[in-house]
Amino acid sequence: MQLLDVNILVQAHREDADQHAAITEWLIKALNEPRGIAVSELVLSGALRIITHPKIFKEPTPLEEALEFIADFRSRTNVHILSPRENHWPIFMELCRSGEAKGNLIPDAYHAALAIEYGCQWISLDRGFSRFPRLQWRHPLNSSLN
Length: 146
What we know:
about 10% strand, 5-stranded parallel beta sheet, Rossmann fold, 6 helices
């Protein structure tokens, strides 16, 4: 299964995003696959934080519209919400150490650990995930693993 990063939802939602059309097309195809896609609640709240942020967008998404986008996405039958399980914390700590994660990289290690714990492929526009050697990740528009 594929586990999505915040930036995928932001690109899919914001029509003014530089890769909006391509990411939206990819996401629609992924949602129609039998296995569906996965996301964490932390990613959902992160997407909500970014699309409504007035320092990120000149015209941020109004809160009600943003909440509707997230609610619609969550409600789809092929969207699976993943939460950490018992092995998450040890994987997370190991990734923090091996990837030298600090500050803003801590959430990346958290999500990488979630993907590893569930055996998911992490889907992100952020090439910085290559710092986590056990993580299988790729850019959504690139068919090969990074």
